[in-house]
Structure formats: C-alpha cells, structure tokens
C-alpha cells in the first residue's frame, strides 16, 4: 500500500492496522481514544488484494435506515444539535455499501514489517518531508514553541496519515459514520463519532459537503476522528476555523496538541535502535516490561551514542520481527505516538521517518526476510493450537495481542527456543506436529 507514492488513507489505516496484529503487544489493550481511524484497527493489513470473502452479512438491522435516522435525529436534537444543522447534514444521506464492505473485510494476508517500514519510509516520503520542513519552517517554529513537539515527528505523522495532505479520503464523513452507526460492527463507537461530527458542523468549522474522510470517519491532513477533533483540533492560522483539511498550520498544530496531551516529552526520541548481547533472554521484549535505559545497558544492551543523556528514561524492548531482526528500545514518546494510532509498527515508522529527515534512522542489521508472516487463518490456527496445548492465548480471533504473545513465550520456553513471543511458520509447524 506504500509501494505507490500516493497511498490513500483507507489503505493507510489498513496498513496501520497491520501493526496491531503483526507486532503490537498493545493489541489486547488498545488506547482508549486513539486519534485516528480506530474503527479499522480490528482489521488486518493487506499484503495483496486477495482477501478472504467477507463473512456472511449479519441480519439486516430491524429498523429501516430512515427509521433509524429519525430516532437518531431526536437524540441529536436532545443533545443540543440544531434541527437545521442535522437536516442539512443528513440531506440525501443513504447507507454507503462500500463502507460496510470495508468494515467487514478481513484480509487474509499480512505484509512483513520490513515491507511496511520500507514503504512508510520511502525515499520519496523522506525527500518530500524535508522539502515541507523547509517550506513551513516558520510555522513549525511557532508550533514547537507553543506545544513542545518537534517538527520531525509532526511532519512524519503528516506523511504517514495523509501523505502530507495529498490523500485525506473522499467519503462524506456523515454518510460513512451514519452507515457504521446503523449497521457497522461497532455501532456504539460510530454513534458517538457521528454526534461529534454534527457538533463540528454546528460549530461552523466546515460545511457538510467538505467534511470528507476515510471510510472509518478519519478526517483531514491529520486523519482525526471527530471526538479527537473536538478535543484537540486547533485554529493555529487564526482565521477562526479549525480547518485540518485545508490549513496545514491547523493540521500540524492539532497533531502537536494531541501528542502533547498524550504525554509527549520535548527533546527525547521515541525509539533507539540497540544491539542485544549473546544469550540475551528475549522474554524481556514485552511492552509491559519497562526499565530505565541504564538498567537495559546493565543487562548488556548496547545503546550507542544516541543514548547519551537518556539513561534515566523508561524504556521497553521491541523486537518488531522477533529475535532474528533488529531490536529497539522504545521510550515514553513512543507511547504517545501509540495514543495517536495504537500500532507499534506505525509508531516505529513515525520515529524512524522523523530521524531520516535529519539524515539518521538507518536501521542496522537484517530482517528475517525468509520468514513469511502468518496469514489470518494461520494465526487463528496458532491460537487454537496453543489453547489445545494448555496455554491461554485469548479468544482465537487472529489478533496477536499480549495474551497470545505470552502463550507463545510459554510454549517457546517449553521447547527451549528463544522466547521472543513472535509468531512464525516454524512455531506453527511445531504445534501441528505436537498435536
Ligand atoms: Ca484556521
């Protein structure tokens, strides 16, 4: 999805979702209010256009769309939305079948993390980001002054979210969210976003016809969902409107405001690439295990010169592709990026892309390119096999979260294998034989 220089935001959010299932040990404990496109986060990344057929469509809602809309209108008006605002927003709105298809698709194949990163940190994106940092230097100076978030991170997020504002989604946010609230998989969530979207319209920041976004309702250059917009969007250029669609100053400042509120600490990196010593116990690579950088160093982790001055910072060890691939210490700012989008590969891409803008961010070591990521059905089989072997990987949903990683580690330890919690074909083969 990043092979083309111009990924659309729907594909972006699917790509980002990959991280959840592929890498993130946070998948079992998603952030409460991720800023962008959380509706897509339960879905899988696409490695190619082939996907399993969508599951049988659930029974149609008991209400017709117009009856649902009328009930929702009463509720919206009770919540303070003007009748005129509501009726203008909903004029001609019907359910969008493409939104339901996107919501229900469960892509079978997952891109390897190294391919995801190579796409996210493409030479095109690095050059474009560098040019935009020069072009918007004065605005970025002012945003850094006000919010204490560095320009590299902001421009990296801008590139990841919308290819610097080039691809923001072209679907009506009201129509998409109304569709999802009416018959999506997470109707309560969509319902809350739809109310928030009406509040934005009522505030006068944007007109309904211009309120465009992804199928999941992520909007503008920052791909904010409506609740995040209402809590954190900023009018930075001073024209009286929070316009994250057309004003890059508003969009970048809004992202900075959100990161600041998510615990961003100025002047610190989000991630550091590290080298692990021989014989290292990979079971320490767990998002729930935090140690100071100095404690990791005492365990033999080589941080390199970029770790100078960071010895007291709290960090977790991330192995994006298991013990055979590169290792990273991830710091508090990594967790702030996860609040934006709860995916460790997304956060790593933002961090490394930001470093690339300054000429750094070269990833040393090699990826295990001979490994093919488990497909969705293989991940389900892995979870079922782990359960049959006496472990507790959680429900067999194909999502590799903290519980599944813990189960994998337990099984790896029983076999005497490196306990990195990383699912791969060898592990699945071993479980099949052990059955
Ligand atoms: Ca503005």
Would you mind describing this structure in some detail?
It is a single chain. With 435 residues, the protein is mainly alpha-helical. Helices cover 47% and strands 4% of the residues. The chain has a four-stranded antiparallel sheet with strand order 3-6-5-4. A two-stranded antiparallel ribbon has the order 1-2. Helix 8 (151-162) crosses helix 15 and helix 14 packs across helix 15. The longest helix is centred in the middle third of the chain and has 17 residues, at 187-203. Residues 235, 237, 239, 241, 243, 247, 250 line the site of calcium ion (CA).
Strand content: under 5%
Helix content: 40-55%
Order of helices and strands: HHHHHHHHEHHEHHEEHEEHHHHH
The tally of beta strands, per DSSP, is: 6
Q: What's the mean pLDDT score?
A: 88
Furnish the topology, listing elements before pairings.
Blueprint: H1 9-22, H2 65-78, H3 83-90, H4 97-104, H5 113-120, H6 123-135, H7 137-147, H8 151-162, E1 171-172, H9 173-183, H10 187-203, E2 212-213, H11 226-232, H12 248-261, E3 271-274, E4 291-292, H13 293-298, E5 314-318, E6 327-330, H14 332-340, H15 344-357, H16 376-388, H17 402-415, H18 425-434
Antiparallel strand pairs: 1-2, 3-6, 4-5, 5-6
Helix pairs in contact: 4-9, 5-15, 6-8, 7-12, 8-12, 8-15, 9-10, 10-11, 11-12, 14-15, 16-18
This protein binds calcium ion (CA).
């Amino acid at each position: 999805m990043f092979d083309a220089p111009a990924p659309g935001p729907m594909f972006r959010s699917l790509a980002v979702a990959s991280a959840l299932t592929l890498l993130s040990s946070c998948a079992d404990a998603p952030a409460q209010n991720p800023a962008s496109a959380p509706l897509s986060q339960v879905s899988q990344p696409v490695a190619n256009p082939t996907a399993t057929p969508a599951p049988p469509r659930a029974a149609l809602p008991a209400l017709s769309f117009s009856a649902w809309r009328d009930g929702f209108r009463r509720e919206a008006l009770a919540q303070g939305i003007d009748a005129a605002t509501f009726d203008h927003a909903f004029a001609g709105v019907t359910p969008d079948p493409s939104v339901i298809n996107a919501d229900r698709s469960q892509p079978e194949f997952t891109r390897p993390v190294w391919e995801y990163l190579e796409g996210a940190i493409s030479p095109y994106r690095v050059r474009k980001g560098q040019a935009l940092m020069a072009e918007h230097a004065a605005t970025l100076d002012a945003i850094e002054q006000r919010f204490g978030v560095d320009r590299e991170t902001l421009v990296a997020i801008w590139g990841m979210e919308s290819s610097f504002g080039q691809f923001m989604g072209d679907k009506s946010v009201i129509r998409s969210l109304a569709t999802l609230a009416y018959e999506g998989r997470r109707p309560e969530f969509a319902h809350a976003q739809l109310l928030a979207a009406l509040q934005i319209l009522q505030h006068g920041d944007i007109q309904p016809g211009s309120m465009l976004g992804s199928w999941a309702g992520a909007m503008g250059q920052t791909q904010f969902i409506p609740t995040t917009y209402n809590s954190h969007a900023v009018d930075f250029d001073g024209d009286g409107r929070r316009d994250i669609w057309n004003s890059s100053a508003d969009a970048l400042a809004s992202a900075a405001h959100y990161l600041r509120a998510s615990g961003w600490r100025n002047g610190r990196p989000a991630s550091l690439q590290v080298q692990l010593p021989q014989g290292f116990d990979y079971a320490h690579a767990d998002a729930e295990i935090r140690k100071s950088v100095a404690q990791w160093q005492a365990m033999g982790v080589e941080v390199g010169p970029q770790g100078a001055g960071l010895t007291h910072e709290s960090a977790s060890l991330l192995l994006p592709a298991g013990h055979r691939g590169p290792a990273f210490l991830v710091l508090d700012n990594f967790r702030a990026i996860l609040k934006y989008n709860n995916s460790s590969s997304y956060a790593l891409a933002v961090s490394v892309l930001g470093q690339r803008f300054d000429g750094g961010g070269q990833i040393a070591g090699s990826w295990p390119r001979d490994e093919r990521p488990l497909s969705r059905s293989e991940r389900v089989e892995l979870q079922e096999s782990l359960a049959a072997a006496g472990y507790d990987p959680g429900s067999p949903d194909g999502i590799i979260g903290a519980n599944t990683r813990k189960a994998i580690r337990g099984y790896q330890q029983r076999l005497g294998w490196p306990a990195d919690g990383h699912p791969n074909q060898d592990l699945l083969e071993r479980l099949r034989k052990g059955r």
